[in-house]
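User: My instructor asked us to take a sequence, write out its structure as tokens, and then describe one feature of it. I'm not sure where to start. Here is the sequence I was given:
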Amino acid sequence: MNDEEYIKDLEKTIGKFLEPIKGIPFHIAIKAVYGKEVFKFDREDEKNEELIDDLAKAAEIAGKNASQHGIFTNRPNEAGNKIADYAKIALKQLGLKPETPKRVDGKRQATGYPDTCLRDKYERYIYLEYKTYASKTIDSTQRTFYFSPPPEKSKSKIIYDIPHLMLSFEMNRAIISGKECYIPIGWKIVDLYYIKVDVKHEFNTNNRELYKREAIIREGGLQSYRPSLASY
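Assistant: Let's start with the prediction itself. The structure tokens for your sequence are:
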């Protein structure tokens, strides 16, 4: 095989690799990425049913409190972060313990999936994600849920073989004190075991590679425009 044929085959291979992979069961994706099982939530277990009752009560409490105060934000996705705060307060009031997930290295990390590692009244754990949605977009195919593999195994936030649930609030626009805001008008508890996810690949690089000497055509300084230390 000559160089031209090799390059063409390589281009075809990379092109196929970059095609999105669709319909992967969530529990299989988590197992492949993190090496952890996602257990189906057993509705026949009395303790589990009690937990669902508590999650439902927490959703009602959080929804009522958020509706009274309103969630004021210019970005709809930020409403999800704020309703999560209401939900965590409600969960604690009911005797549950929403904790910032612990990583493999023992550190706790708030950003990224999942939002919370929830400990119930029987000291059992589940992973709990918080989301928001609008009734007009609930059947949309727009990406609203995602997770990314950790850059290092030590930074993985998924360290237990447990169920993964989602507490999601339906949001609507409202006017409180003359200002537009969001209020929750409904909620859902979802067992993520049943969902399917897609994979979309991307290319990326770092600054060392991006600014390597042979790639720079020309550069210059702007010393005269830099503020002096005295200006600080």
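For the description part of your assignment, you could build on this observation: The radius of gyration is 23 Å. Try explaining in your own words what that tells you about the chain.
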